[in-house]
Amino acid sequence: MNVLIIAEHDNVSLKAATRHLVKAAAAFAGTVEVLVAGAGCQEVAQAASRLDGVARVLLADHDCYAQQVAEAVAPLVVALMDSRQVLLAAATTTGKNVLPRVAALLDVAQLSEIVAIRDSRTFVRPNYAGNVLVTVESLDSRIVATVRTSAFEAVGEQQSAAPIDPLDISHPQAQSRFVSASTLQSARPELTAARVVVSGGRGLGSAENFRLLDGLADKLGAAIGASRAAVDAGYIGNDHQVGQTGKVVAPELYLAIGISGAIQHLAGMKDSKVIVAINKDPEAPIFQVADYGLVADLFTAIPALEAAL
Amino acid sequence: MKVLVAVKRTLDPYVKVRVKQDQSGVDLSAAKMAMNPFCEIAVEEAVRLKEKGIATELVAVSIGSDKVQDQLRAAMALGIDRSIHVQASDELESLNVAKLLHAVVQQENPGLILLGKQAIDSDNNQVGQMLAALCGLPQATFASRITVRDGWAEVAREVDSGEQVLAVQLPAVITTDLRLNEPRYAKLPEIMKAKKKPIATFTPAQLGVTPRQHLNVLSVAEPPPRKAGVRVASVAELVDRLKNDAKVLA
After folding, report:
1. Of A70, A140, A238, which has the smallest distance from its Cβ to B214's Cβ?
2. What 3 state SS string does chain A have?
3. Average pLDDT over residues A133-148
4. Sequence spans of domains, chain B
5. pLDDT tens for residues A212-232?
6. Which of residues 124 through 143 in chain B touch A, CB cutoff 8 A?
7. Is pLDDT of B237 > 70?
8. Does B71 have pLDDT greater than 70?
C-alpha cells in the first residue's frame, strides 16, 4: 500500500516527528511519499527528501498553506489520496487538526494516535488516557491515521536524496484567517524528540523556583517539561506541558521533579525508558511508575544532582 | 445567535477504568458516568456567551442510549435552553457521530457549534473537525479563548508551539481545550427547572443518516504494567544507578 505522509514543520525546519512517521510508513511495504505543505518551505522539502525510505517529496509551496490551516490543507490532501491508500500525520496539534477533516471528506474513519502497526489494516491505539490499549481493524478503502511518534523509531538519512515534485495546487479560502502566534524560541532540544526530559510540577512552588531546573537541564542536554498543575499555576508556558492534553514523550530518561503523578500526567510519559521521580511525599503516585525514586526535599536534591553530574 | 453544543456521556473521569475479562471492551455496567469534561467546558462557554448577550438560544445535542438524557438534563441545569437526543448506540464511531450532528446542524442552523476537543473514553479528537468538513464550515480546534464580534470568532488555540490565534467566519465549529474556562456547578433550583425543559428525540433514520461500520475492534486490553522500581537513599546513589545500572548517563 502506498503511503502519503504529511511532513511536520514550521516552514523553516523539518521536525523530528517526520523521521518517526517515515519509520511507521515502512510497515505498509509500499512507496512512501512526503507532502510538505507550507509557504517558503523549500529547505523543509530538501530535508524531507534525504530521509531514509522516502521515494518522493511533494512540495505545495503557497501562501494559503503558510499556517497549515485545515480549511486549505484538507482539500489539497484529499485530491492526493486518489492514488494512495494510506495517509499518516504526527499526532501533534497540527496533525490532529487536519486529519479528521481529510478523513470526513474521504468518507473513511480516522485512527488516532496509533502506537503499533500489526498489519496494514490492524493497529493498536490507546483509549482512556493510555489506561487501555485497543487493537482495531480498518474496514475502509483507505487508512487515515495520526501516529504517536514516540512509539516508533526515527529513520536516518539516505545516500541520494529523493526527487522533489512541486505541486501547482492552491486552495485559497476566506473562511478562516491567521491572526497571530506566540512561539517561544529555545536553545533546548524539542520536548517530543529529546533524549532526556527534566519535568517539574507544583512541588517547585513558584515560577522562580521552576528555573532551578534550567541548570540541571543544561547539564543533561535535556528538554524541560511540566505537569498541568505547574502550567496552570503559571510556572511555565503550556507548550511545556506533558500529559494527556499536552505532549506525549518517551525519552530515554525522564526526571519527574516535584510531580505527584496525576493519571493525566502519567499518560504523557509512562512509556519513557527510565523514569526517575524526586518528591518529598513518599506516597506520591509517581513512585509507582518510577524506576528510581528518591524521597527528598527538592531544594537540596536539585542542586546536589546538578553538582553530581 | 443560536449556539449548538454537543455533549457526550462518558465514564466519570475520576473512576478507575476496568477492562472486561473477555477483552471485548471496558466494563461500564456498574460504573459512574458523567458528562465528558471537555463537553462541560463547551457548555460553560455557551452559557457565558448568552450571559454576555452574544448568544440568544442555547441548544444541546447528545447521541446515544436513553441514558444520555441525564447529561442533557445536566447541561440544561447549567443554562442550556433545550435539547436534542439522537437515539443510537453508545459506541458510535466518530464519523457517524459527525454525520448525525451534521443533520442536526442542517435542521437547527446555529451561528456557532461548540464541542469538546475530545472525549476522555475513546480519546479520538475527531468529531469537531469531521463535522466542520461535512458542513463546509471553518474550524478552530483546542480553543483557550473565544471572542465573538462582527460575524467572526477570534479563537486562541493551544498548539504544541504555544498559542495560535485564528479568526473564523461564523457559522463555525469550535472545539474546547482545558483552559478555556472553569465550568460552574448547577444550583438546585436550576436542576429542578431543567426537568421541565424540552428534549426532542430523533432516530438516525429520521435525520436521514444510516450509520456505517468503518472499524472492527479486535481486543481491548490493559497495557503491560511497568516493572516495580527501587527507592534510592541519596542523590549519589541515584547518579550511580543511572550510570551503572540503567546506563542512561555517561
Report:
1. A140
2. CCEEEECCECCCCECCHHHHHHHHHHCCCCCEEEEEEECCCHHHHHHHHCECCCCEEEEEECHHHCCCCHHHHHHHHHHHHHHCCEEEEECCHHHHHHHHHHHHHHCCCCEEEECEEEECCEEEEEEHHHCEEEEEEECCCCEEEEECHHHCCCCCECCCCCCEEECCCCCCCCCEEEEEEEECCCCCCCHHHCCEEEEECHHHCCHHHHCHHHHHHHHHCCEEEECHHHHHCCCCCHHHEECCCCECCCCCEEEEECCCCCHHHHCCCCCCCEEEEEECCCCCHHHHCCCEEEECCHHHHHHHHHHHC
3. 97
4. 2-244
5. 999 999 999 999 999 999 999
6. 124-134, 137-142
7. yes
8. yes
B242 and A135 in contact by Cβ < 8 A? no
CB contact under 8 A, A136 and B218: yes
Instruction: Judge: A132–B26 Cβ closer than 8 Å, yes or no.
Output: yes
When pLDDT is averaged across residues A95-99 and rounded to a whole number, the result is: 98
User: pLDDT at position B56, please?
Assistant: 98
Pick the CATH number of B2-244 from 3.40.50.620, 3.30.1330.60, 3.30.420.240, 3.40.50.1370: 3.40.50.620
| Chain B interface includes A10 (CB < 8 A) | yes
Amino acid in position A300: T
Cell representation of residue A169: 495546487
